[in-house]
What we know:
By secondary structure, this protein is mostly beta strands.
Amino acid sequence: xxxxxxxxxxxxxxxxxxxxxxxxxxxxxxxxxxxxxxxxxxxxxxxxxxxxxxxxxxxxxxxxxxxxxxxxxxxxxxxxxxxxxxxxxxxxxxxxxxxxxxxxxxxxxxxxxxxxxxxxxxxxxxxxxxxxxxxx
Length: 136
């Protein structure tokens, strides 16, 4: 498999292998830490996920913020995006992101009230990378 640095316009052509797919994940209820996390399944080997829409919702009584991570572990260097409101927000990306093979995308909310549950949803296409000059 060619080495890919994560940006879309680097001399690779994306070949779509699935129709748009939606996955929704719910968190466990928040504890007093106020942190809840939804982790999506690991991207299969030999494929990338071309993520076009990220939606977050949390039924917290306090205002939350959600952070999108492109791989585990959840760490500052792996943040892809944040939301203005983790309680209800959508990021329909004008520049889709690619999640690399064997990585797992995660959404983490902060400041969630005790007992609240977060829901994260992504819409993506599975793609493979081929050497070439296109970007889709």
